[in-house]
Amino acid sequence: MGLHIPAEFVDKYNQPGPRYTSYPTVPAWTEPFGETEYREALADLAARPADELAIYLHLPFCAKHCFYCGCNALVSKEKGAVDRYLDLVEKEIGMVTDLIGTGRRVVQLHWGGGTPNYLNEAQTDRALNLFRTAFDLAPTAEVSLEIDPRIATPEQVAFLHEAGFNRISLGVQDFEVKVQEAIGRRQSRDKTLRVYQGCRDAGFEGVNIDLVYGLPGQTQESFSATLGEIIGLSPDRVACFSYAHVPWVRPEQNKVDTSIMLEGYDKFQLFQLTVDKFTHANYTWIGIDHFAKHEDELSVALRNKALHRNFMGYATKPAPHMLAFGMSGIGDVCDRFAQNDAELPGWTDAVAAGRLPVVKGHVLSEDDKLRRLTILNLMCNLELPWALTEQAYGKPVNELLADSLQGLPPLVEDGLAEVDDQGLRITAKGRYFVRNVAMIMDAYLGKGKGKPIFSRTV
Ligand SMILES: C[S@@+](CC[C@H](N)C(=O)[O-])C[C@H]1O[C@@H](n2cnc3c(N)ncnc32)[C@H](O)[C@@H]1O
Ligand code: SF4
Prior knowledge:
Arc Repressor Mutant, subunit A, nine-stranded mixed sheet, 16 helices
């Protein structure tokens, strides 16, 4: 194994912490925010017609619930549930375009879930056309979706490509049968390989595979075998997420046998193994948990310091605003975050009654914007040049955030970051603890009460 990092060191930094797909993170959104505030954000967006957009659509339906799942997913046996959902998405899009106008330029469209390929062909075409009619989807737009290979076929992925998707993400998690049993997700290797090959044959520009480390039943040996097989497939990108065990948010996770789950240092070693294997196989380690082929756009963006991070994860096509549709979707419009009702009945009732289904959100203050700039820069580019804020704020970061940066010396002493008069850089060791470094700039951490809602950083 590459870098030796002692167990006590890992334990010291293994704290609950955000993944910073946004700043401030959702638990900090404590002020009332609802339809009125979102309408104001959309009115501001209407006044900036040239700004490009990203769009997220949440499709919650799944064939069966996996125990380990941390996503907002639901299993519905009700006939017509998907069609009814799409009727409401259509209505929701209509409410938004009534306020911002139709034909706005979209550079990124992502369908997440749940399981977007739960939709049949007619439903998929319908949903895509809702966006094509209401927006101007750029010819170069990244149009992506997440699929569950268990319910996919090579024909379905060929159809998805033909329909207009150019990037696809396959949920694999782990090939080991014992692990699959422990997470309530039997997934035949053959089927996954056939669907993967189908994606290649269909000509997708990018094929991504999702893995999770720290799942029950995983061992260094078994995960090493899964990683070897994935590398053999040669996907363009891999996301290897740390298993977030948050049964207080996702009660289904109570079915996970935690006694066979590696934690702390043992879990950390699973990730070190992942890093070693992918970097030796010529993948670039992107941000905290992604790997991409050197020639992939994500790697190029990292080299050019042009990587971005938003609610969908790491991105290469920056759009200043993101609209979200469907239950639980989180948007980012004119310096306001807005989240839709996360429960189907709440979202349904609001949209059916002609109300924007936003139940939670946050208006970013000037301090939030400053900290967001620095935190996201660190999460993407693994450095914080002091000059980053000069243009927008007329002062360097180390003057503007001098208070927060008082938390830096112990991290520098521990070898997580280096500092000089140009700025802060994450070290090779610090790569594993970027979130811990970012946390010193977070003005909200530690202010909440009750159970920590974040998963741990390791
Ligand atoms: C919406 S799912 C992917 C699509 C499809 N539903 C499937 O399962 O194949 C998104 C991804 O989130 C990751 N994920 C789900 N639950 C997680 C958890 N508790 N901790 C970490 N990652 C998780 C998995 O890698 C999963 O593939
Ligand atoms: S992991 Fe995917 S298929 Fe399983 S419950 Fe979650 S969203 Fe659904």
